[in-house]
Write a structure and sequence with these properties.
There is one protein chain. The protein is of the alpha+beta class. It has one domain: Alpha-Beta Plaits (2-Layer Sandwich), CATH 3.30.70.1060. The protein has three helices and six strands; from the N terminus they run E-H-H-E-E-E-E-H-E. It has helices spanning 11-15, 19-38, 88-101; strands at 2-9, 42-47, 55-58, 64-67, 76-84, 106-111. The protein has a four-stranded antiparallel β-sheet with strand order 2-5-1-6. The chain has a two-stranded antiparallel sheet with strand order 3-4. The relative contact order is 0.31.
Length: 122
């Protein structure tokens, strides 16, 4: 069963990490990633660029584009994982493993259906 794990954290705090702090978090996450890859559970994942680089298309008549993310929130959507596990309990276990490796924030875990696999990522 596929799940999307949406990673939220305080962008200002994460962007304020030194390179050494960021490298340490990424090294801890890599341990979890490698385990999930070996188990055949990790699909695409990504780390988003700063919210200041975002544009949002608002679906109105006519549609318009504004700078930044759609929602003004305390924590921002900073990354994602697609995982393939048996059920929600297993998905939450993965979230716990990632949470131990990455301080602060939250992981929103949702079942998902694959709309289109695509071929552009590589």
């Amino acid at each position: 069963m596929l799940f999307m794990m949406i990673c939220y954290n305080n962008e200002a705090q994460v962007m304020g990490w030194t390179q050494e702090e960021d490298d340490a978090v990424m090294a801890r996450l890599s341990v979890v990633h490698d385990k999930l890859i070996a188990e055949g559970k990790l699909g695409p994942s990504g780390r988003l660029q700063a919210t200041g680089s975002a544009k949002t298309l608002v679906k109105s008549d006519p549609p318009f584009v504004h700078d930044g993310p759609y929602a003004e929130t305390k924590e921002q959507f900073l990354g994602f994982y697609v995982i393939d596990v048996a059920d929600m309990d297993d998905a939450l276990d993965v979230a716990r493993q990632l949470g131990k490796a990455n301080p602060g924030g939250a992981y929103e875990v949702r079942p998902m259906r694959l709309y289109a696999a695509g071929e552009a990522v590589g």
